[in-house]
Every structure is written in C-alpha cells, then in structure tokens.
Write a structure and sequence with these properties.
By secondary structure, the protein is mostly helical. About 55% of the residues lie in helices and about 0% in strands. It has eight helices and no strands. Helix 3 packs antiparallel against helix 4, helix 3 packs parallel to helix 5 and helix 5 packs antiparallel against helix 6. The radius of gyration is 14 Å and the shape is globular.
Length: about 140
C-alpha cells in the first residue's frame, strides 16, 4: 500500500473532507483540495476520496476528482478500488467515467469482472466486456 499523502492532517479535517465526497458536495470538496488537502488522502480504511465517492454514487464528485488528477487504481485495505465500488454499486455512469480516464478494471482483490459476475451485475459485465473488446 502506498503512503498516505494526508497523514499529517487532523482526523477532523480528513473526516470532514471524506464527508464532502460522500455527500456529493463538489464545490466545498474542491475548496478543501485547493486549500491543501491532498487529493489522494486516505482514511482509516485506506479509502481515497475517489473510492468513497464511487461507492456513494456521487458521479459529479468522481468526475471532479478525475479531472483534478486523482490516482485511479489505489486499493483500500480490503483490496477495493473506485472501479470495483462502481461495479458493486451497479453505477454505469461512474464506471464509464473511471474507465474513460484510464482506470484498470483488473486491479484489486477481485477484478471488476469477477465482482460483476459474483453480484449478478449484467450491465456492468457488458460495459467491461465492451471495453475489453476495444483494447
């Protein structure tokens, strides 16, 4: 696991920033990043803002984080990535945003395709197969 670039931040700042990502508050989240909160800061589970926003189905936040250069393939302590969260939650929009940005669907404890199959996410399987065919 990579080093946490936000390790020197207070728990209060980290928690507040992650709440903004989870709640879809793009503007205030951008302000926190502009004020110096590293975009790839991790919480206690080693989630990144991108992982949390993908799991919370916050497409606008995901787009903003991708635009700002968030690392796409970081794994949390459970081997989950933003892509695996999008697949698990069945969010085609977020999955496409991440894949279009270059996220690797094969990173993590289970690949995105394995997660889609395990949880019966047919639409996610189709998107992943379509992307794989284009590669």
């Amino acid at each position: 696991m990579d080093e946490n670039p936000g390790a020197s931040l207070s728990a209060e700042v980290i928690d507040g920033t992650f709440d903004l990502a989870r709640e879809g508050r793009v503007g205030p989240l951008g302000e926190m990043i502009d004020a110096g909160v590293p975009i790839d800061t991790r919480n206690a589970r080693s989630d990144t803002l991108l992982i949390v926003s993908a799991y919370a189905r916050q497409a606008d936040v995901v787009r903003e984080l991708v635009k700002r250069g968030a690392a796409l393939d970081i794994e949390n302590t459970m081997g989950q990535t933003a892509v695996s969260c999008a697949v698990f939650r069945g969010d085609a929009e977020i999955l496409r945003v991440l894949l279009d940005a270059g996220a690797n669907p094969d990173v993590g404890f289970r690949t995105a395709a394995q997660i889609a199959e395990q949880f019966g996410q047919a639409e996610m399987s189709a998107i992943l197969a379509e992307r794989a065919a284009r590669s």
